[in-house]
Amino acid sequence: MGLDKPSNYLPRVRVSGAGERIINNLLTLWERIDAAGTQSDQLTLHIDTTGQTGLPKEGAVLTWQEGYGDNLIDKGQFKITRIVPKLFPPSVTIVATAAPFQVDDNTGFKERRTRTFENVSLADLFRHVVTPHGFSPRVAKEFESLTIEHLDQIDETDSAFLARIARERDAIAKPVNDLYVLAKRGQVKTITGQAIPPVVVTLPSNNAPSEQARFINAQLDRPSRQRIKGVKANWTNSNTGEEHTVAVGTAPFKKLRQTYDNQANATQACQEELIKNQRQGTSVHLELPGNPKLVAEGILTLNHTFPAEMRGNWSIDKVTARGDSKAGYRCSVVASEVV
Hints:
By secondary structure, this protein is mostly beta strands. 14% of the residues lie in helices and 46% in strands. It has 4 domains: 11-97, no CATH class; 112-192, Phage tail protein beta-alpha-beta fold, CATH 3.55.50; 199-222 and 282-337, no CATH class; 230-280, no CATH class. Strand 19 (312-324) and strand 20 form a beta hairpin. It is flat. Mean pLDDT is 84; it is low at 1-7. It comes from Marinomonas aquiplantarum. This is Phage protein D.
């Protein structure tokens, strides 16, 4: 697709690993998804295979770089999980994920399980679940002291179970290469040791769709429903059997369905639910020129060139980077209001 040409300004990508010569020379279209939350980063490559052999097989690891000219940024390693050949026109689609999932799933990561955990810290529970699958666990410090008296995993895969317990605490359980990370939103890359500098975006002086290489489009999404300002939850005193209610914030309140075993856990659940609801408020969707420094969990700053209601810092939820010979290198970004 012409992205692998020497230039100081042209978009460029590079693959290292099995089949790199064919992929780099005959890549026609690519897409990389970097998402916050439980979704693993994914890379999709479309390759013209006319008269070609020697493509990599499922399970092979590719290293991906993207950027401009000689200024390429390493976006990590991706393991091939699916290869889809097409007869006419001769082509192959390669799908790879940043998580080290094997097609044969030797460790049973995708199997549904039913089991119970009692009197264990959230951090230890997390390590117990992910370590047998070959991941190296990374856990935020605040979860080391959070004790769970009773928790059931009922007919859930381990990934779904981890996602659920993380979501209930406004956290993220996500595979990142050979790591499996449990962290608060906005801290996933930090806990893996990767620094994320903010990305500042400026509108070009001639921001017209005809100027595809520089054009930026943005849309603000404000939910029409009234945002809650407080959360209530019930907890039961194990000594007396009496039920009590705690509240965090102010009216209007949301009531949590679960009853907690002590006041501290109920209060923490209310605080986490309130933060989560605030994060699910205003969001912004942007289409802009490709920028390899845009990453999920990072901060996007829309400067003074944007309308007043869009200016400020936004927490990036998802980045979809694409490249082809026609549209060049573009990114779609979804970001939430920083609260």
